[in-house]
Structure formats: structure tokens, C-alpha cells
Specification:
- The structure is a single chain.
- The chain is mainly α and 67 residues long.
- It has one domain.
- The protein contains two helices and no strands.
- The longest helix is centred in the middle third of the chain and has 46 residues.
- The protein is elongated and about 70 Å long.
Length: 67
């Protein structure tokens, strides 16, 4: 009986660990989905001619200002 109980304890620990991994994956997938949506919307704006033209220096300054 003790052998079976140890197995159940191990299984319970494994299930808890798997739940934590799944939660982390869900968070990651949600972030990826948000990024994909923002990217798609940006491409739609570019395709509609709403893109912004700038020099390399202007672009780099804008990127640096985002930090």
C-alpha cells in the first residue's frame, strides 16, 4: 500500500508541475498573440499607405526613445 501511496504523491507533484508549465505557456501564447495582432494591424496600416518614412538616424532616435 505504501508503494502505491508514494506513486500517488509523485503523480500529484507531477500534475502540479505540469499545471505550472501550462500556465506559463498560456501566458507566453497570450503575449505572442498580442504581438501578432499588433504586427498585423501595423502591416495593414503600411499597406493602406499610412506608413511613415524617415531616415536611418530618425529611425534610430525613435527606437532609442522607446527604452
Amino acid at each position: 500500500m505504501e508503494q502505491k501511496q508514494l506513486s500517488l504523491e509523485n503523480m500529484s507533484k507531477e500534475i502540479i508541475a505540469l499545471k505550472k508549465k501550462i500556465e506559463q505557456m498560456e501566458e507566453s501564447i497570450a503575449e505572442d498573440l498580442k504581438f501578432a495582432i499588433r504586427t498585423e494591424l501595423a502591416w495593414q496600416e503600411i499597406d493602406a499607405g499610412k506608413g511613415k518614412k524617415m531616415s536611418v538616424n530618425e529611425f534610430m532616435n525613435e527606437i532609442r526613445s522607446l527604452k
